[in-house]
Structure formats: structure tokens, C-alpha cells
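Obj.: predict assembly geometry.
Materials: sequence records (below).
Method: joint structure prediction, all chains together.
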Amino acid sequence: MSASGPTERSILVSVPNAPGIENRLKPLGLDVLAAWKDRVYIVAGDADLRSLENAALSFRPELGRTLSPGSVAAASGGLNGAYHTYKELEADLLALQQKYPAIAKVFVLGESLEGRRIYALKISDNVEREEAQAQVLILGCHHAREWISVEVPFLWGKYLAENYATNPEVKRLVDRSEVWIVPLVNPDGLEYTIHAYRYWRKNRRDNGGGQFGVDLNRNYEYKWGLDAVGSSADPSSAIYRGAAPFSEPETRAVRDLFLKKDFRALVSYHSFSQVILYPWSYTDLPSDRDAELRDIAVEMSDRIKAVNGRLYKPGQSGKDLYLSNGDTTDWTFGLSGIPSYTIELPPIDELLGGFFNREEDIAPIFQENLPALIYLLDRTVQNYRPSLQNPFDLRDFLFRSRRTGAILN
Ligand SMILES: [Zn+2]
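Observations (raw C-alpha cells):
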């Protein structure tokens, strides 16, 4: 926690990595990220910057536009520039629906703790109807500070809607699939990062005792709370898993959609690291479908790299990133066995910006991810066979059968 507390805007700054710098920084109580080469990097609010000045430590902002209150007032796209606020996203989703009513429809999946709507955008031909077609689910912004993870899913929906009439490949895919996009799973957290504290990660659950927030990507049911490495029982922790699986309305909104549909592939966007991760997350041991999950990840990675030359390294989440339990993709894969990916968007590390992508990066990051999304959708369409029964109907059926003793003994 930075010395200025969580109520101010923060920016990334650096100071020279001079001998004795640690001892000079320590009494200031700063949020020091890393020392690297000749600089030490710090997340600093206004009070922290004043502390640095008072200590005669010269600092420089590291990433694009600073977010001091003075500079944001003049910025064109509102407080967070070209990135979406909750209200801007709502308006843009409804505008897409209005402009392309035949193929774009907005749904409200539920409400956040603070009463904001959790929106889904469905893109499909005959969008009003549920058809036996390949269903794909794209999620964004479980974690509040990962602003770019709102933009890529939104732009994917916009791309499909805008190009349907003119691009035969887009038309073919949209006609044969049902793409569901939830760009903002955590609207309360996002608003908090815009108006209060840029570095916030969790939702805004009041845990009591002055502690806030549940890590929504540790709140899913599969292997929830398995150990204290992959999630935390401490409400003050950044990876606090919540009081119970699906204790949060935001994860319940995703759960309820997932259980109602028959999704065959999923991508949940996060930032940062530039990696494409597949289950399992809860263990470093591979799943029994490891080769298949890896092949798809490699295909996506190759297509991304072909655009701007950036490598999104494919790997198993629990082995190649870090252990986590209760995450989205373990739940969707554990429940239904569908290819499920966490894509950590650029940059590759904290020193290249971490969570603070520039506004100018939004378009190129979407463009490089586009061929991977097209590939995954196309693959899902190619492999699609309608279920004889939706797996969840089947589960109900078996459950009922068991209760009546009709089939199973
Ligand atoms: Zn994240």
C-alpha cells in the first residue's frame, strides 16, 4: 500500500538506482515495484510525489500521460481517456445494438454489488433466437486495473458487427456461431480505479474491518480455496477468494450465463504478461487434454506474433505462470471440458508499463489479437456438433433418474 493511501490517483515513476537508495526510500513508505538496471520503479500517488520531492529525490513519470487530477480534467475522453468507463461502455454497447439490430443484442446478466449492470453482447445471425450453433464466450476485466482487458473484447464485438455486411469470412462465422462477449465483469472495480485508486484489482465487497474486495478470479467453484498459495482467506489480500464459491454477484452473473448456454470455447482477457494460458491453474500437473489445449494456444500465439512480432507465450497456467485456485478457466474446463484460455495482454512486464497501457496501444493490441480470435471461433465452428442434449440437461436427467431409481443403481 502506498503512503498516500488508496483514495488518490497513482502513476508509475522512477528514481535513480543510486547507492543507499533503499534506505532513503524506506522511511517514505512507498509502493516500490522493482529495481532494475539504473532505475527504481515506484507506484506513487500525489502525496508520495510530494514525499519524494521533500526527500530531494528527483523522479520521472514512466508511462505516457500522467493521471494527476490537473491533467485528467483536460483530457478528451473523460478521466480515463480512450479507455471505457462503465457508462461509456454501456452507451457503446447499446449503440452497437441500435446500429446492427439483426446481429447484435445486449443482455443484462446481473448487477454488481454497487448496482451496476453486467452486460453481455451477443453477436449472431437471427440474434433474437437461440440456435444450435457454436457458442463462444469472451470475458474481460475480472481485475479492475487491467483496463486493456475491457477494450479487446469490446472491439471484437464491434469488429464482427461492423464487418458482417462486407466481409464474407466474418459473415460466414457470425452466421454459424453465437459469440457472447462480457467486456466488463467487474464494473465497480473499474470505476474505483478511475475515480479513486488506479491500482485496484478486486471488486468492491465490504469485508468488514476496513477491508475491501474479493478477487473475482479466485471466486469460481472449481478447487475453490484449495490452498493458501493459489488464493487467500485473508480479506485484505489482493487474491482474497471470498467467503464461499460464487459469493460475488459478478462471478454469479458469469456462472449463470455459462450454465444456461452450451459454450464450446472461452477466452478470459487479463493483463499483463503476454501469455496464453490454459488449465490447470490449481496445479502444475497437466490435464489429460494438455496436448490439445497446448496446440490451440500455440496456433493462437503464432497468429498473434505474425501481426506485430510480439510473442504471447503459450503455457499451462499453474506451471508456467503461477498457481491459482478458483479461477475462471479451471471452472469452465473442469465443468465442461471446453478449451478455456486466459490471455494476458501486453506488455510483457512491469517495466514496459504493467497495467498502464497507453491509449495509442489499444488499437494495435486489438489488431494483433484479432487473428487469434478468428482462429478460435473458426475452429469452434468447424468442430461443432450439436449435443443430443445439453450437458446440463443431461446432468439433470441423470440426477432425476438416480432419484427415482429408474436407470442408475
Ligand atoms: Zn487479471
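Conclusions so far: The chain is about 35% helix and 20% strand.
To do: check interface contacts against the pulldown list.
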